[in-house]
Amino acid sequence: MKHGILVAYKPKGPTSHDVVDEVRKKLKTRKVGHGGTLDPFACGVLIIGVNQGTRILEFYKDLKKVYWVRMRLGLITETFDITGEVVEERECNATEEEIREAIFSFVGEYDQVPPAYSAKKHKGERLYKLAREGKIINLPPKRVKIFKIWDVNVEGRDVSFRAEVSPGTYIRSLCMDIGYKLGCGATAVELVRESVGSYTIEESLNVFEAAPEEIENRIIPLEKCLEWLPRVVVHQESTKTILNGSQIHLEMLKEWDGFKKGEVVRVFNEEGQLLALAEAERNSSFLETLRKHERNERVLTLRKVFNTR
């Protein structure tokens, strides 16, 4: 049984949950989840957790994402994308220069209102489910960040661009906000998620076309996941006590990367097995001081333990 992360490709049409179900079916395991919904009309990178990999998906939801989008100016739909019912069509008399200026004006932070048809929840119910029942819930705006926008291409009413954005940013809403700024509205007609963190569409796997063996072979093992988090190595004899839930004291540590108090670190044994994720109780710079004064204090608090062998 493999545990880890799969960089999947979601084609246009299926939901993100459809991708999860396909992996469950082909790998014959129920423990599968995804790290951030991708709209059915969109395609691109979808991070999938398999078995104990589902327990680290929360860290993938916090990564930056890059999208390519094509929007149509003057078209307004209920869902802010091409699948929704058309609410209004307007002329757009903006010049190319005005269109570009409006697009680039959103680089930086701004307060974005999530679409009524989205996977966000209100009192435990998905917004899209409530909207289909005729209960339109307007959530308060959320502060998002557009890190950069590039490759802007204007072809009449159709405008495309790439954007690198913070977690929780809705590209559909960004398109509509650009349209509102131009006075004509806009709707996303094509959307591709090109990357999540360092994971790109080029390395993604279409699980609907892949054999079970190929899916299994493409799972990134836990030991190679979350490589942006600091690494700590404990003495081999501490393995069993940590897997049994004992907190990590200074004498258990063999070596460590630099980390700050409150930061999450990956805990490995000397054989390279990922044992746990833990929260630092001290800055790493203080550990040598503790060692010098022979103070065997707790230095890491367990958050997740991975007993995969």
From TrEMBL:
GO terms for biological process: mRNA pseudouridine synthesis; tRNA pseudouridine synthesis. Transmembrane segments: none annotated. InterPro entries: PsdUridine_synth_cat_dom_sf, PsdUridine_synth_N, PUA, PUA-like_sf, PUA_sf, tRNA_psdUridine_synth_TruB, TruB_C. It comes from the Bacteria. This is tRNA pseudouridine synthase B. Its EC number is 5.4.99.25. The keyword Ion transport does not apply. It catalyses: uridine(55) in tRNA = pseudouridine(55) in tRNA. The gene is truB. It comes from Thermotoga petrophila. Belongs to the pseudouridine synthase TruB family. Type 1 subfamily.
